[in-house]
Automatic annotation (TrEMBL), chain A:
InterPro entries: DNA-dir_RNA_pol_su2 (IPR015712), DNA-dir_RNAP_su2_dom (IPR007120), DNA-dir_RNAP_su2_hyb_sf (IPR037033), RNA_pol_bsu_CS (IPR007121), RNA_pol_bsu_protrusion (IPR007644), RNA_pol_Rpb2_2 (IPR007642), RNA_pol_Rpb2_2_sf (IPR037034), RNA_pol_Rpb2_3 (IPR007645). Coiled coil: none annotated. It is found in: Nucleus. Keywords: DNA-directed RNA polymerase, Metal-binding, Nucleotidyltransferase, Nucleus, Transcription, Transferase, Zinc, Zinc-finger. This is DNA-directed RNA polymerase subunit beta. It catalyses: RNA(n) + a ribonucleoside 5'-triphosphate = RNA(n+1) + diphosphate. Residues 167-344, 431-495, 1027-1135 form the RNA polymerase Rpb2 domain. Residues 60-381 form the RNA polymerase beta subunit protrusion domain. It comes from the Eukaryota. Residues 664-1025 form the DNA-directed RNA polymerase subunit 2 hybrid-binding domain. GO terms for cellular component: DNA-directed RNA polymerase complex; nucleus. DNA-dependent RNA polymerase catalyzes the transcription of DNA into RNA using the four ribonucleoside triphosphates as substrates. One of its GO terms (biological process) is megagametogenesis. It comes from Lithospermum erythrorhizon.
UniProtKB/TrEMBL annotation, chain B:
InterPro entries: DNA-dir_RNA_pol_30-40kDasu_CS, DNA-dir_RNA_pol_insert, DNA-dir_RNA_pol_RpoA/D/Rpb3, RBP11-like, RNAP_Rpo3/Rpb3/RPAC1, RNApol_insert_sf, Rpo3/RPB3_RNA_Pol_subunit. SMART domains: RPOLD. CDD domains: RNAP_II_RPB3. Residues 22-300 form the DNA-directed RNA polymerase RpoA/D/Rpb3-type domain. One of its GO terms (biological process) is transcription by RNA polymerase II. This is DNA-directed RNA polymerase. Its main location: nucleus. It comes from Lithospermum erythrorhizon (Purple gromwell). Transmembrane segments: none annotated. One of its GO terms (cellular component) is RNA polymerase II, core complex.
Amino acid sequence: MAASKSPRQHNNLGKKDYSKLRELFRHHIESFDYMLEAGLEKMLNSIDPVVVFDSLSKTKQAKLSYTGKFFMQVCFQYGDGPDGAVIREKFNFGQFPIMLKSRRCPLGKADSEEKVVAHKEDPSEMGGYFILNGLERVIRLIILPKRNYPQSMVRNSFRERREGYSDKAVIIRCVREDQSAVTVKLYYLNNGSARLGFWIQGREYMLPVGIILKALIDTTDHEIYASLTCCYDEKFDRVKGCVGTQLIGERAKIILDEVHALSLLTRPQCLQHLGEYFRPVMPEHENHGFSAVAAAVLRNYIFVHLDNNHDKFTLLIFMLQKLFSLVDGTSMPDNPDALQNQEVLLPGHLITIYLKEKLQEWLLKVKRTIMEDLDNPNKKFDIGSLALVKKIIDKNSPKSISASIENMIRTGKLTTQSGLDLQQKAGMTVMAERLNFLRFISHFRAVHRGASFAGLRTTSVRKLLPESWGFICPVHTPDGEPCGLLNHMTASCRITSFFDSEGKIRDFFKIKRSILSILVGAGMTPSLPRHLHGGPPEVLSVLLDGCVVGSIPSAWVEKAIFHLRKLKLSAKSPIPHDLEVGYIPLSMCGAFPGLYLFTSPARFVRPVKNISVPPQDNNDIEYIGPLEQVYMEISCPDGGDGGRRDQYPATHEEIHPTGILSVVANLTPWSDHNQSPRNMYQCQMGKQTMGFSSQAINCRADQKLYHLQTPQTPIVRTKTYENYCIDDYPLGTNAIVAVLAYSGYDMEDAMVLNKSSVERGMGHGHIYQTETIDLTEQSRNSNRTPRVFRRSNQDSQVHHLIDTDGLPYVGKRINPDEPYCSIYNEIEGKTRLMKLKGSEPATVDYVSVDMKTRKKANIRFRQSRNPIIGDKFSSRHGQKGVCSQLWADVDMPFSAVTGMRPDLIINPHAFPSRMTIGMLLESIAAKGGSLRGEFIDATPFPDSVKKSDISLVVELGAKLAAAGFNYHGSEVLYSGLFGTELECEVFIGPVYYQRLRHMVSDKFQVRSTGIVDQITRQPIKGRKRGGGIRFGEMERDSLLAHGAAYLLHDRLHTSSDHHIADVCSGCGSVLTTALIQPARRPVRQMSGLPPPRVPKKVTCVSCKTSKGMETVAMPYVFKYLAAELASMNIKMTLQLNNGAGA
Amino acid sequence: MDSVASYQRFPSIKMREVKGDYCKFELRNTDASMANALRRVMIAEVPTIAIDLVEIEVNSSVLNDEFIAHRLGLIPLTSERAMSMRFSRDCDACDGDGQCEYCSVEYYLRVKCHGDQTLDVTSKDLLSSDPSVRPVDFADPSAGIDSTDTRGIIIVKLRRGQELRLRAIARKGIGKDHAKWSPAATVTFMYEPEIYINDALMDTLTPAEKRSLVESSPTKVFEYDETTQQVLVVDPEAYTYDEEVIKKAEAMGKPGVIEIHAKEDSFIFTVESTGAIKASQLVLNAIDVLKQKLDAVRLSEDTVEADDQFGELGAHMRGG
């Protein structure tokens, strides 16, 4: 084990290396950067020009600026110009939210930590989020089907599409250069034909493939037939890797016959047919010819990732072959839940497509107003007049576009007509909570499967599949409702972007061309010029980003891949380092074979060592994707040969076994020695720990911040701890933990804290809460009276709490229900006091006022939260416990040799069933480490990297023995109460303990009497309002079962809604009785004597008598029930007797 | 009474080693209850003086008021006066508001950073109203002027423009109430071990066995003399009652080759003080406190005062 002798090396050098930390956030920022730099332009180019009269096209250009808000809301102005030919006009499109640390953010430009600190941000600030109304929000990464990759699918719902449909289809999610996507489905019909389905304006249209094939290019029936059947060759029938069957020819005939039946023989006929069919649903093409409409349909809805009709044709042929192979069982359906068929939705991409849709909507609106004005004969509207057009555009509020983007990020809701080809419309963003650093990081590494899967009753989407090895952390997922849906990327996993390693935007055209030339050099036959290619097993189709670029003989493909991988390593070659070489080899009825290359962004990639090729330019780290990983031979250091023996030698090697873990899971020391669920619990609890949430806590105005006063760096830590500079945000204390049953207060996961340790500062913490008082905002809702912060001169009682400016003194302690702020209403001349809520005193930590208007103030309160009975703590091994007693130091067991008393006692029963051996190891290691003054490296799977003969325990035990301690970490302790030796030796040593944010002060609930519900007169619920805890049915049942009748009566009646009702024994009604007020006689008031008691007189209104009135004790709800029943014409009568006879 | 044997014993203390903050002594002729009582009193009931009330005038440092107050409280103050001082709750002179000279010591701290360098505010910046009660000085005269010890205990660090101004009141208290009043860093005692080597049995062991037996103890209790081939006890007090040697002997098949017993009536104490009181004084004070406590019990044994002083407990003690 390598114990680092100088763990704070980076401190000695004066600079910390935050680059690894920043790497974790890169995909968020890069996607946004790309959107700013190039993505917007691409998107704008792809927007259909709105045509008013004679081709008035619109081009746009962007202008940037930013304003600061709260912390740093950076904004973006945006121009637009309508022009006949050259005139460009700038339009203000409002304030556009900007991602922190992006290239338009001043933090992104700040190159040194000092500059970042000068902006009052943490030196390690990673960015990647937006700030809206002072709240930090992250755009969630959501799993999407892999783009431009045809996937075969079997779903019962396909059968319900229409009569004759089977449950099989091939689906491709096509993504344009501007990131907008259109999904196309190729359904198989039971009669052997196929239908191409796509959505236009919320309706799915399904066309016979024959029409599309013919409409795409000028072709002949024979050519279609031949290209479909080329994948079948009799001599390979039922040979390994063969996908075609004899039936394919029959099916081709059926497809062609269908077109003939519609008497569509030529391309123009097909286009005409499509045009006629689709013109009604394409309003922007209403003035165009049928063939132009058809061309638009093919361009905008079918295989939109391809520009060329020929490419679309070949792709459709390929998809048909894949579909038929699926039907014939020569290939398996692809699993949509497997990571190899997935990619991720990046923030920049989401904003781009959303902005595109909003711009399109807005342009149509502008067009409509122009048209209306043109059609209106009363108005003289001249389209040539730029001023008039500008006026109309301004009238249509271009600023609303940025506002809608802002709104989307703030609420996470998409308001869209088309759905943007996404499965969900809400929950796109989440708050980046700064509860502690781990929670904050996790927001940026989290990948959600999609909100639509959360409600699904099946659990198959939640399964941990072997495909996600190395990309998705198997440990770091919450348990409970979102389990398996909310995953986290491993620490080494990256998302591909548009930027190359030097930060330049990639030239995809160049990349594609060089890949093609390499492939052709390796023996690929390009698909152009058109001629017949064979099919598997002889040749394999090559797809590059969803375009069938050619075919390659299967004998040569391995060599080609080897060559490509070699070039991937080289920095000089034009092949990008993250090219995905998805080679699906020939198999008996496995996945559809082929060579699938991807250069696209938004793919998962991870680094592995390539051991089959000598390092290129000193680089042997290759980035691989999940599609190729499945078919690669990657050896894991602690996995032996992985069962591949000698036939399939490993070509790649894992860098380190911890590569499968996320950042948070990597922080658990020796997690390889723990039972796996415990590591999952730690991932959850690590994110609930009180720690250092931010270095710049005094410059922040978060609603709630938790802060640990005296944190420590763990003695036992993993390499990840140093790599990601967690020392900047520590989250715990090294506590001396004794494992013994002492005091009896440590049962059932309770733990006893040493009172003196707590008094010396262990686990001390604070909660910071900020109240924002905005006077302008409040006055909008009610009356528009101007109000200012000012204190009343009359009421001098509050002067010790509130200063002359109406705001509290900084450092003043304020008790619950005491005022902290005074607001003066200038019209009414009254002052209103804001009072402190809650049940704890708070100290005013910080007051800031908006100096421009003096109408807005932030008041930050600080509450001390020192450990008390009921607070929750946990070690880093999923061992949580509640403090049950602050035990006097002298009563704690002590060691005779060192005099050491433990800080904390836990019960030995916490171990056998939970098997958290890592915690025991941590205790031993930390003891040895603290004796020698060194940190201990507890990175999991150490022996897989450094083979050592001696086991970890032997190594750690030797250190203890050398320092004169027991080899196994146990010590002889003496009872603190009696001074006698304890029977057993006690396992004792330092363990890093986290203080969790769940504290009794926020949770305890107590009530004697208090507010009751208006209607039922029962105690209300809710801790905040002073309500009680419900004594429910099950509690009632248990008291009944115990026969505790008096207690039951007390709980449910006396202490609840006890009521004495008057009942008329005549009619048995509780409702008709009325209290008669005796006529008030002028009684002489004799001084000193109480007024004579007037006897209560009750009458029954319905019986019109006051005889037979009885008083009965009953729950008030019973009376209420009678009233409710009466309102439904149900009469309730009570039969009274005095109980003696009953 | 004669029929009952007298349990009266005459405990004796023999000081072995006395250094300012550290002392080691033997306590003989008594039992564990007495030894433990002494330990507990030293830790929790010997009074010292510590800062108990802080009035902050200006605090523009990075640490908040409570944090600084807590840190001030934990600074050990020289507390030779503590035994003769009054608890402020019992003080007649100031009616219990705890601000008079009999029960409190006043401190002032006024620091502002004017330079570009970070300024350390330390315990040396505390100005005391009573020169006999001042922050403990750990300075080693032999060490250089810039050694960390001579600068005192750091309270907070200030950057340019930051200021800390406060008044603090130190009071007498005991460690039971708050750990800051505890004068002891560590007090521990061990039973004196009696180590008996069965020479006859030992002679049956080979030299290698003897060596491994000696090495089985993590602490250096035994030594193997190569020339005489004898196992010797060099430091019986290094024995931690871990029984490693005995287990080893059993594993060798020679149980009883070494026997170790704890002497029930003699203890070896190790005391380390925080610096508030000298370790030797701490022992004496502890004995005084223990005496007072015993006196309180004895005096009130059969008096009416017992009821006043102990209430129900008094009656209980009298066998009621």
